[in-house]
Amino acid sequence: MFKHSIFLRIYAGLVILVVLVAMFGYLLVQIINYQRAQEYRESLTDGISYVIGESVARQKTLQQKMDWISDASDLLELPIYYIDSNKVELSRSEEKRISEQKAIVRYDAEQGVAYMILGIQNDPHHYLYVKADSKDSKFGERQMKALPVFVQEYLVYYPGQEEEYLNKIRQHFSYPVSIENISQTNLDSEQIGRLRADQNVILYRDSATVHGTTISIVAPMANLPGKVLVMGPVPMFNWMPFKLAAGITLLSMFLLCLGVYGLIVPMQRKIRQVNHALNKMKTGDLSLRLNVDGNDEMASLASSYNSMSDHIQRLIEAQRELMRAVSHELRTPVARIRFGMEMLADEDEYEYRVQQMEMIDKDIEALNTLIDEIMTYAKLEQGTPSLDFEELPLFDVLDQVAVETEALKTQKTIQLMPLSNDVLVYAERRYLHRVVQNLVGNAIRYCDHVVRISGGINTETDMAYVCIEDDGPGIPEADRSRIFEAFARLDDSRTRASGGYGLGLSIVSRIAYWFGGKIEVDASPNLGGARFTMYWPAKRFKAKKK
């Protein structure tokens, strides 16, 4: 059922599409945030790494450098190593960062450990290697409180020029670094007291702006009374900032729209083809047929359109053929009736007048028979007739036709092959009787002596059948398909002289069609003449009842 319903496929496609877009959005956020987090970590360390590198480079001897690094390690409570540069493999981007006096940060998410590599000015042969374990619950706050110490230690070498050298290093920081009067910091009395006690103050502020939560560090300047060093505000890392959320949302909506369009386009294309075909049909052109692709509703619609076009085209052709044939067939009896009437007007002899009246009566009966045949054929050809299928013994219908034919005194032998009353088929009795009657009547006209009637059910195919054979001249193989056309007659012994109007076999063919079966004609292997066999589903309607 799923593959046969285009709407279920669209709904399932939408669900799968939403899941895929959600997974894509999640992965995209993770990839973008991985890069953002890396850039964020590097931006936080760039400024202080420059200051530390300058401070290490300022030390004159190796021992002084090692002592300074040891003090810095104790201050940060992080291990800092002074290593040879040839022991560290750097990528091109990392080498570029070192040359620009920026820090390299390598983060191991599984271990929760960050490794920082810092360059040393005027010492390309050595790096500072720092290991920071972010799993430590106190990690971050201790290091942040220590950051102003390195800046102050750098500025203490330039007394009276603190602002000038602060401007020099400020370009390496991604966040503001300034020296301000303590009165300008908007601190409360408790925080000012801590500053006067030579303690650093960390300020957390929440903001409704895109920056969100920020953090600032305020440290007293020992050599500048009334002055403080303010580092920040530094925005905390936001895993889902407004711009990223808006971008991912818009991209997801765009992908969903593309996916929905991709799901709808095939159905839209098929609807457009059907609409084009219907417009062609309105102009009277019935030659266009639609491609039946798949088993869904659109394929069913295309198949129904093709069947409708075939049926309408067949009806139009049948109507034209019927009009031509009817006009031809009616002329003969009408002409005979007119001739007979003229003869009656000129003839005074009573017996001759009675003879002419009998001939006229036969012509009128022939007209009635022709009209009845035409009406039956038209009813079967132009649309689905009202069929009342029922379960009935096949033998009863065959026996009834055999008895009726025997009563006509045709001087022909009617052989009804034995058939059990237990053989039940689903059929419309009136039309099944008409099939057997027409086939037997046709065989009577063209046989030499014998007509054989048989029927049954093919157990392999579950198809019911009736078979009528005769010992006449048979039907040439080349003419077997043509005899089921309306008003068709052959040029051999099956001619107008044998009677009929050429509609009997056409009616049989249409009944077989509406029964869901078919009719075939070949040579009788036993009698030598023609053999007509009609097949139709024996239990088709019984299965539907279940």
TrEMBL record:
<dbReference type="GO" id="GO:0005524">
    <property type="term" value="F:ATP binding"/>
</dbReference>
<keyword id="KW-0597">Phosphoprotein</keyword>
<feature type="transmembrane region" description="Helical">
    <location>
        <begin position="242"/>
        <end position="264"/>
    </location>
</feature>
<dbReference type="Pfam" id="PF02518">
    <property type="entry name" value="HATPase_c"/>
</dbReference>
<keyword id="KW-0472">Membrane</keyword>
<keyword id="KW-0808">Transferase</keyword>
<keyword id="KW-0067">ATP-binding</keyword>
<dbReference type="GO" id="GO:0000155">
    <property type="term" value="F:phosphorelay sensor kinase activity"/>
</dbReference>
<dbReference type="InterPro" id="IPR004358">
    <property type="entry name" value="Sig_transdc_His_kin-like_C"/>
</dbReference>
<keyword id="KW-1133">Transmembrane helix</keyword>
<keyword id="KW-0547">Nucleotide-binding</keyword>
<keyword id="KW-0812">Transmembrane</keyword>
<keyword id="KW-1003">Cell membrane</keyword>
<dbReference type="InterPro" id="IPR003661">
    <property type="entry name" value="HisK_dim/P_dom"/>
</dbReference>
<dbReference type="InterPro" id="IPR036097">
    <property type="entry name" value="HisK_dim/P_sf"/>
</dbReference>
<feature type="domain" description="Histidine kinase">
    <location>
        <begin position="325"/>
        <end position="540"/>
    </location>
</feature>
<dbReference type="InterPro" id="IPR005467">
    <property type="entry name" value="His_kinase_dom"/>
</dbReference>
<dbReference type="InterPro" id="IPR036890">
    <property type="entry name" value="HATPase_C_sf"/>
</dbReference>
<dbReference type="InterPro" id="IPR050980">
    <property type="entry name" value="2C_sensor_his_kinase"/>
</dbReference>
<feature type="transmembrane region" description="Helical">
    <location>
        <begin position="202"/>
        <end position="222"/>
    </location>
</feature>
<feature type="domain" description="HAMP">
    <location>
        <begin position="267"/>
        <end position="317"/>
    </location>
</feature>
<dbReference type="Pfam" id="PF00672">
    <property type="entry name" value="HAMP"/>
</dbReference>
<protein>
    <recommendedName>
        <fullName>histidine kinase</fullName>
        <ecNumber>2.7.13.3</ecNumber>
    </recommendedName>
</protein>
<keyword id="KW-0418">Kinase</keyword>
<dbReference type="InterPro" id="IPR003594">
    <property type="entry name" value="HATPase_dom"/>
</dbReference>
<dbReference type="Pfam" id="PF00512">
    <property type="entry name" value="HisKA"/>
</dbReference>
<dbReference type="InterPro" id="IPR003660">
    <property type="entry name" value="HAMP_dom"/>
</dbReference>
<feature type="transmembrane region" description="Helical">
    <location>
        <begin position="6"/>
        <end position="29"/>
    </location>
</feature>
<dbReference type="GO" id="GO:0005886">
    <property type="term" value="C:plasma membrane"/>
</dbReference>
